[in-house]
Write a structure and sequence with these properties.
single chain, 269 residues, alpha+beta, two-stranded antiparallel ribbon, 7 helices, 9 strands, 15% strand, rod-shaped
Length: 269
């Protein structure tokens, strides 16, 4: 009887032992399958990579530019240098520096302006053309004003308007930026000067007390002129300080220049 009981107990122990072993084996199998086939499924499935959608960067609210700023790129409206192709003539194109031609600066700048706005692209005007035009202007001045040797800025502007149909305006106490702004619009600038203060070594010294020159461009160093007071006046450079300090309009009442009248004549068509 005792032997039978002991034998039954042993069979039960073995049975439970087998159950425990099978349970442990099943658990190990499940763990192995989940680890080996479950986790790696993020990397491969049937030997094909699985694409995991990229959620992208987090959505952020739009950033507003600081007050007073622009989202457009800045642009530069003015070049650093400009040169308008205004043809040149001296006021004595045939080298005849008589009394009339010595005073023909107003006529010379007017002829150059007219030829530029008429489309003449020559570097130097033919002497016969320039001399003929200046003679015509002298006649007009004598008929209109009763004189033709020295005229004021206002009279020169009137002559260009009435003889050549050009448009003009006057700028008093002009600045360097005033001149650049006009040149940038394809306008020419003519200034009445005390020629003795310009310091041009090409003049017969001490230089003319009254002179007019035409400004046609600028660089980082100053302004470019057609200075009819010398045969070497094509593209002649002056600093702004020189031009402004020498600026002086003709005064008929004193028969000389007035340094208190610093006037720029703007010419366009």
């Amino acid at each position: 009887m005792a032997h039978r009981v002991s034998s039954d107990i042993m069979r039960r122990i073995k049975f439970f032992a087998i159950i425990v072993i099978l349970a442990l084996a099943a658990g190990a199998a499940v763990f192995y399958i989940r680890y080996h086939y479950g986790v790696n499924q993020l990397e491969t499935q049937n030997n094909q990579p699985i694409v995991v959608p990229d959620p992208g960067p987090p959505s952020l609210p739009p950033v507003k530019p600081p007050t007073g700023t622009s989202t457009k790129p800045s642009t530069t409206t003015s070049p650093t240098a400009l040169l308008l192709k205004v043809p040149f003539t001296s006021q004595a194109p045939t080298a005849n520096w008589d009394q009339v031609h010595n005073e023909d600066c107003e006529e010379a700048v007017s002829v150059m302006a007219d030829q530029y706005f008429s489309g003449n692209t020559q570097t130097n005007l033919p002497a016969t053309l320039a001399d003929g035009e200046m003679s015509k202007l002298n006649d007009w001045e004598q008929k209109t004003f009763g004189y033709n040797l020295d005229i004021t800025s206002a009279e020169a502007a009137q002559m260009m308007q009435q003889v050549y149909g050009l448009q003009t305006k006057m700028i008093n106490n002009f600045t360097a930026q005033d001149i650049k702004d006009q040149l940038n619009q394809n306008h020419l600038v003519i200034i009445s000067e005390n020629g003795q203060l310009l310091g041009n070594p090409n003049y017969k010294q001490p230089g003319p007390i009254h002179h007019m020159l035409l400004i046609k461009g600028y660089t980082s160093n100053g302004f470019v002129t057609n200075d009819s007071g010398t045969r070497n006046g094509l593209n002649y450079p002056y600093t702004f300080n020189t031009l402004y300090n020498a600026a002086a309009d003709w005064d008929h009442s004193t028969n000389t220049v007035d340094a208190g009248k610093k006037i720029a004549i703007v010419v366009w068509k």
